[in-house]
Amino acid sequence: MTRRRREETSLDALLTSVAAVGLAEIGDKTQLLALLLVARFLAPWSILWGILVATLINHGVSAWLGTALADMLDPQTLTITVGFAFLAIGIWLLKPDDDEALDADNVRYGVFMTAFVLFFVAEIGDKTQVATVLLGARFDDVLAVTLGTTLGMVAANAPVLWVGHRFCRDLPLKTIHGVASLLFIAIGLWTLCIETGWLTG
Questions:
Q1: What is the CA radius of gyration of the chain?
Q2: Containing domain of residue 8, as a range?
Q3: pLDDT tier at 8 (50, 70, 90 boundaries)?
Q4: What confidence tens digit (pLDDT) does each residue in 59-70 have?
Q5: Residue 181 and residue 90: Cα distance in Å, rounded?
Q6: Does 118 score more than 80 pLDDT?
Q7: Per-residue exposure over 47-74, b if at least 16 CB sit within 10 Å of its own CB, e if not
Q8: Nearest CA-CA partner of 33 in 50, 9, 13
Q9: Which of 107, 119, 130, 152 is deepest in the core (most CB within 10 A)?
């Protein structure tokens, strides 16, 4: 009974993590990064492997951190932290992306390593990393959360790599960035004002 209950908890953690990060990744800067990379290099498999390895490492550490933070922070403090994190990400998205690193002349270690480094760095402080920390705290299951968030990340970016590059020049990237920025700022304000009770006093 204990083993079955533990398996059900791991399955819940896995499925919730896939859904949460998969949805959060739509329109995110890392998805746009995948679009820019495949448009530049036309090597979807190398980019996908770079995304996979970078996400496994980054989200593995994040899920572990979440389980540790759950024991140190009270729910109110955790909610406030997440709210400010969303605001910061929303403001950061207003800054145009610097695509200098995507210049083919700067690729000295191959497309895989370029994708790995760029995605690993882009995920630092990203909303999907914050979500992974929170999921780790919620389920206390590093393995299931890491696998789930990684699958969600791959599921959101794989279609971009094989389909998006055909239409990448027709997509209004600045508009997508602006909408994503407003969405993150709205979520941050909603989290701080509603969930913490600041709006209602």
A1: 18
A2: 2-195
A3: very low
A4: 999 999 988 876
A5: 4
A6: yes
A7: bbebbbbbbbebbbbbbbbbbebbeeee
A8: 50
A9: 152
